[in-house]
Amino acid sequence: MPTLRVDDSPAALPREAWNRLLAASPRPTPFMRHEYLQALHTSGSATADTGWQPQFLSLWQGDELLAACPAWLKGHSYGEYVFDWAWADAYRRHGLAYYPKLLVAVPFTPVPGSRLLAVDDDARALLAQALRALATETDASSLHVLFGDAADQAALAAAGCTARHGVQFHWTAEGDADFTAFLARLQRDKRKKIQQEQRRVREAGIEFQAREGAAISAEDWDYFYRCYQQTYREHHSTPYLSRDFFARMASDMPEHWLMFVAYREGERVATSLIALDPAQRAAFGRYWGATEHIPNLHFDACYYQPLAWCIANGYQRFEGGAQGEHKMARGLMPTPTASSHWLAHPAFADAVNDFLAREGEAMTGYLSELNEHAPYKAKDAADAASS
């Protein structure tokens, strides 16, 4: 019989075996690589001290790793991007403890992808059932698996979880020869708006340099982190990730990073960081920041420069991150996402399940409405909505 194990650090699990499971999963992303999760832990970004108590769950047949997932007992709901603050407040108002809860996710990273890594569907089903059992054993109020793939959702539904649906905005390649060809497919007002925004950035004296992998210097990373901190400061918040985390990314996963640095008269003024999955030909917008305000620079650094790079380098998908209807005007189309949830308290479980059913119906209508306002010309809009 397979055996289950719970570890308090990703370092306890074999990196090569973990990454093999990931590579064979339905939707791998760089954020589920062992190196990424280990960097979150070792850098102090996601540990018990920051409210993320590791509970990495794995399934073994002798020395063979059959399935595994990154799990945490959470004492708060920060850094998740699937919002359950209202649920926590309802528990509090009824004199019940919502925390700790058991969470399967990539901390601070709202990128859809495989979460329950497994050699086959049977092992994935056992892992889903084990998560339910772990939530009970740890006195967690609930289990949440965020941004999982379709196989994850099916296994978790069979284990008694309910789906919650959301939307993000992604670009998918349509064979454009270059950024100019991409713009030509947009409706006239959208195209002119982008051209106007880029022209104003150029008129401000801004030039971009793109640096990939090992070409990103330590000085570039230092400047990026300064910008990253500034972005959080402007929102009266504290950065989730430490400088050491990004140092580990530079050393352990350099091939997965692309940085755009904006210069004016030879001085850095802004930067954006894009994650890359060369095997899947996918790119992911992650972070941005500037050391001075320049109108429209955000749109150029975070959307137009990455899209132009993706087209030039044969990438097939660019994911713009969580939320943001404004991304549609930049050519990113609505894309459904899903998470899975189970609550131990029967009455609250019934109430949440009813809410999720109604929310799901509303989300279906919202997606339809968004697709009716696609930024592309009629034929291209139909193609983009179906891709």
Automatic annotation (TrEMBL):
Pfam family, one: FemAB_like
Database matches in InterPro entries: Acyl_CoA_acyltransferase, FemAB-like
Tree of life domain: Bacteria
Entries under PANTHER family matching the protein: ACYL-COA
Source organism per UniProt: Pelomonas lactea
Gene3D superfamilies, per database record: 3.40.630.30
SUPFAM superfamilies reported in the protein's UniProt record: Acyl-CoA N-acyltransferases (Nat)
Identification of the protein by name: GNAT family N-acetyltransferase
